[in-house]
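Researcher: We're teaching a course module on how sequence relates to structure. For the next exercise, students receive a sequence and then see the predicted structure as tokens, so they can try to spot secondary structure elements on their own. Here is the exercise chain.
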Amino acid sequence: MLKVGLTGSIAVGKSFVCEVFRELGCHTLDADRVARDVVGKGTPGLEQIVSAFGGDVLTADGELDRPKMASIVFGDEEKRLLLNSIVHPLVFESQNAWLAAREVEDPDGIAIVDAALMIESGGYRRFDKLIVVWCEPEIQFERLRKRDGLSEEEARRRISSQMPQEEKKRYADLLIDTSSGFDATRSQCRQVHSELSKISAETRRD
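Model: And here is the predicted structure for the students to work with:
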């Protein structure tokens, strides 16, 4: 099985790209969903977060208060690194189990894991190829403001807290630019899928 990492900065269109790859027959996993699951109510992951940050990060019903957690770690490098040190190992473990299961059921397939912090965490090294999704900075800024209802200051703060897009692109084996909208992005996804299929076939021959 060809194992592919997919990453990109906030609000660049990773979810849409993953949906297209799913339509094209790839197995896809949203690491953000995994990250939510591993710190769900009653999990050891959530217990570790409460131990590190205190009970104030919980909602009244015992779930992680994600907006509050985000407000604590965005712009505070030390706290963000602490949170990542708890969540990333749990996410890696869950991803590896998922990849192993997909390989058993479809050894000739393509499995794509979508994770925003794949480069920063070093997780990209576990994959055969890395796709970086990106878009022009002002488009990213407007998408983020519209999607999350943020002020201009808060949107720019969240973007600046992440690795710059240009730096992420340097890690890429394959790039997808979502700046021109859905149709152009879908076309690029088809091209990348074709390349991945060729790589997968060559790997099987080897």
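Model: If you want an answer key for the exercise: The radius of gyration is 18 Å. The first strand starts at residue 2 and ends at 8.
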